[in-house]
Amino acid sequence: MSTKDHKEAKSALHSERSSHKGRGSNRALKDIWIRMKRNKLAMVGLAIIIILVITAIFADVIAPYGYAEQNLSNQYQTPNAAHWFGTDELGRDIFSRVVYGSRVSLRVGFISVSISMLVGVAIGAITGYYGGRVDNALMRIIDIVQALPDTLLAIAIMASLGPGLTNLMIAVGIASIPGYARLVRSSVLSLRDQEFIEAARASGSSDFRIMFKHLIPNCMAPIIVQATLGVAYAIINAAGLSFIGLGLEPPTPEWGAMLSGGRAYIRDFPHMTLFPGLAIVLTILALNLLGDGLRDALDPKLKR
What we know:
The chain has 304 residues and is an all-alpha fold. It folds into 2 domains: 1-38; 44-302, Orthogonal Bundle (MetI-like fold). The protein is built from 13 helices and no strands. Residues 9-22 have low confidence and may be disordered.
């Protein structure tokens, strides 16, 4: 066989392998989706999250008023045809502020989880793969961070950085890093001595390639579930920080800040805290239902 024929045969073999790999990946995703559809509560959670995302994207179109638009002649109105959720102490439309608040809360949730996931996955993969002194050094740092309550750590970070959307996302993200680091470390420890990792080492793959090409992709199922539930936790944490005055500055609408602003009027005008509170509860419930559904769909033991 000539050199040209050999290259063509090798290229054809590589294309065939890629095609088989692609079909296998598509079939795996299809199986996961089929198992997800069997879980009605998970589909309800997914539908709610999709609606919330659409609401956040098109908040400018959906909201009938601006989130900072004040009208003192409309103070303390209860829900009516003009103001579906009523108005607050400054005459601002609460429905519009809840709609715009979905944009802020979802952004904080997804970006803070992305920060914690990227850092935590990298630390967990390194400590689990190398072990020894690297593991001891990094995990002791994780232990120190984890020794502090997440909310207290986020409060300390916000107090040092100051209020603001970026600082809020950083604070919530840093507080959640230990959970991802420990999750990935435990998964990597169970995988690093498997035969496919030994084969990758024997073929001359670098440590970086083994970790990010072979180990982390095989840990994605628990990471995805943790991230889904982590978004819910991040939204609660951000709302808590805003509630005590360490979140976003007025007049930016944030559900926790809206709860804080309405608590002084809760006896006379409960609608001021009712609707932001319901928005938080509905979002957290939907994310937890979706997370539980993903956990069941990604669990190999539940395959049929």
